[in-house]
Structure formats: C-alpha cells, structure tokens
Amino acid sequence: MNLFSSKHSGKAPSPKPQSAFREWRNALVFAVGAATLIRWSAVEAYHIPTPSMENSLLVGDYLFVSRLHYGPITPQTPLQIPLTHQSVLGIKSYSDLIQLPTYRFPGFSSIQRNDVVVFHVPHEQQVPADQRTHLIKRCVAVAGDTLEIRNGQVFLNGKPGEAAGQPQTNYFMEVETPNDDVRQALHSQGVVDYNQPDGIPQAVTDPETGKQGFAISCTASVAEYFRKQPYVKALTVTDTHVPDLTLFPDAADFHVSNAVSAAPHHWQLDNYGKLPVPKKGQTITLTPDNAAMYYKIVAQYEHNDGITWKDGMIQQNGQPLKQYTIKQNYYFMMGDNRHNSEDSRFWGFVPEDHVVGKAVFVWLSLDPYGDFLHKIRWNHLLHPVS
Question: Which residue of 1, 17, 279, 349 pairs with 143 in a disulfide if CB–CB is 3.0 to 4.6 A?
Fold first, then answer.
C-alpha cells in the first residue's frame, strides 16, 4: 500500500517555463540582493578624492574596505531617502524616519593603533550616522590612550608613538632659480599640487622672507633628498598656526553649534594635547576644564535626553552634569598628510558605532594628471594599505 498515494494518478504536470523577461528579472533581483548583502556585511569599494592621506594613499586610489575586521554593523535607517526628496514626501528632518538601534556583529579584530579606518563623519548631525559622508584616516590613538603631539611627533601615554604610513609635512623650499628643471625634479619625486592643472607645484614667494621657491607637501625621505640638492638653498617647515578656538576641544562642537571651552587650551596642529581618549565604562568627573571634551559624547553620540551647553558646562534638564559614564569606545583619527587634513584635531573623537571598516588594499590607482599611457599607476595596484 502506498502511503503517499493521491486521488490524482499519473504524472504531475511540469511547471510552466518562465518567460525570458521573468528569468532576467529574477537574476537581476538576486544579483542586486547578493551585492547589497556583500557590501553591507563583507567588503565595499571606496575612492580616495582628497590628499589628506597622502603619501600613504593617493588621490585616485580605489580601495577595498573590509567590514569583517571590526564586524559589520546593522543599518540605523532602513529607508534611505535623498535630502532632495524629503520635502516632496513631507519629511522635515531625518528624525521623521524610522531609526533603529544599531548592533555590531563580532569581527575578527578590534581597532588597532595605526589602522587605516573608514568611518562616518561625526559632525554631520543633520542626518543619521549611517547616511553621513565617509572619511578615511589613520587611527593614531585608541580608547584609554592619552595623546600628545610635540613638534609634529605623536606621543601615546608619554612615549613616542610607532610611526606608520608615509606622513607628509608642509615645507617652503627656497631655490636659486625656480625653473622647469626644479619643477620636473619635484614631479619625479612624487610631489603634487592638486590646485594646479598639471599637478606640478608652481613657484611662489615666501610672504615672510620675500624669497622665491616652492610650497610643497612631502614625506621626510623626499625632504631629505631635496636638502642634498645644490639648487636648494633652504627647506623649512611651513607655519601651521591656526586661529584660537579652531581646534577641538576649544571648539567643542565643530560646525554644529557655537559651544566653546570655558578653559581654552590654545593647542596647535603640531603641538596638541595631552588629550585622554574616552573608554567604555570609564566614569568622568566633569568640570569647566574638561567639559568641552565630552560635550558631543553626552549630547550627540550617546543619545541622552535633555542635554544643553551653558556657561562652559554640560547641563541635563537645566542642571549641571557633574559625572558621566562613557557608553562606548572612542578613537582619535588623523590624516597622514598632517598639515592638510581636517581630522580629530578639529572635530574630536570618532565613536565606535561610526566605524565602517578597515582599508585593506588598493585594487586600482588612477593618476588624475596622467596621460593615456600613464593613467594607471601600475606600481600601486594591489598595494596593501599599511
């Protein structure tokens, strides 16, 4: 006796074959879904548009960024609607959209000092974190470190930090005759001026001395090369002074509000800190001396209610906040092009939940000034990011 017999006998009818259009549509849906899943959970491609990481990464580099290293993070906003479409849909702000709590899946690595990291820019508060601009910088200090910069040298916890990448510095190179031969030497050494149509630096006059030469940004090894050239009369670090209340934490809330520290530090790009980097579980006693360091953490990154800034102190529900316990880890990021990078020295710490992934390798590199035969930088292809 057949226990699986049916009242219908004979062969089951064959399924109706799909039309070519339906097969094409299903394949497209599957491909888009698979690509979206891989992009969210595993790897994503990024393009370097600015020189803030030169000479470690070059303008025109295309990178693969691994989300698996630190663990993929779930989307905060399931609906991603461009700003231009908000008014049409009656959306006044992103707070009108559904926003979900984020969760980071386990990764096989934690964020380490000197990792090159892609993250969501912290100061675009008008949109949720996962819809902000992506930045790429080097993590120079992790949660629990105390950072200091002395004459351009990074110190961590009182000791010189390990050098990584190919940091660049701004110099004025005084020369006897600023001619095309010198410009060609600059080009051959990889010195680029992205403000020039051909990328080659143009001769300028030093406003302080009236001497002629070139304003350049280059690595220490390139600077040493030019110091040995007979046509170079002097090579000096350019003044990097920025106006007071420009850097974090004197400017407590970069581009978001006018909150400034009640006890300014007057730090500069090459002489900065000592600055403690907040760590999860750490309890901070808040005073007018340090409140500006933690204002964005309390008011924005950790989503506390009733937070305001008044008289140089953080207030909650109209009362000064005396203590606060940090809810997540934070990191201090800097560009390798140290004098030409808007980074944590300007806008402060990067929260862990803003981190996207780790830059792994360059899969394509296009020279924006190269001709047809020299457009691809072959020596930079499949170049690991370090």
Answer: 279
Dihedral sign for Cα 198, 200, 206, 210, please: negative
Is residue 188 within 8 Å of residue 219, measured between CB atoms?
no
Specify whether the CB–CB gap between 214 and 50 falls below 8 A. Answer: no
Pairing between β-strand 134-141 and β-strand 146-150 as defined by DSSP bridges: unpaired
pLDDT in tens, 339-348: 999 999 999 9
Residue 248 burial (CB count, 10 A): 24
- What is the DSSP track for 115-139? -EEEEE-TT-TTS-GGGSPEEEEEE
Query: Please, are residues 102 and 353 in contact by the beta-carbon 8 Å criterion?
Result: yes
* Closest of 97, 52, 64 to residue 78, by C-alpha: 97
Strands 159-160 and 168-175: unpaired
Q: What SS3 string covers 340-382? A: CCCCHHHHCCEEHHHEEEEEEEEEEEECCCCCHHHCECHHHCC
pLDDT in tens, 104-114: 888 888 999 99
Sign of CA dihedral 340, 342, 348, 349: negative
